[in-house]
Amino acid sequence: MLRLQVTDKLKALSDEFETMTKKKKGLEDNIAICSMKLDRAEKLIGGLGGEKDRWTENARVLGENYFNITGDVLLSAAVVAYLGAFTVRFRQVLKHSQNCVAGGTSLSSLGPPPSESYL
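The structure assignment produced for this chain is given below.
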């Protein structure tokens, strides 16, 4: 009878040991997976650090373009409306001329400034 109790107790402890060993193995696997995820997250964060600078620069450029878009549209409309009747050669001469004035007033002082690439 005592031997049966000891055997049962030993079997129960063996089963518990096996269960705990499996649980330990599962936790070790989970630690390995979490470590890999952490490494990937650190690499991603490090890679995105440069993105902030790029996005900040893009926002600055877009802000400048937004400020100048009214002048660009007005200048483009003026070119189409007033220079369309002239020859291509004459329009090219005007395009490359630095003396763009309207009624004695510089284009840049007429209203919203166009982009530098439009002048």
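Interim note for the steering committee: Residues 2-118 form one domain. The chain has one domain: 2-118.
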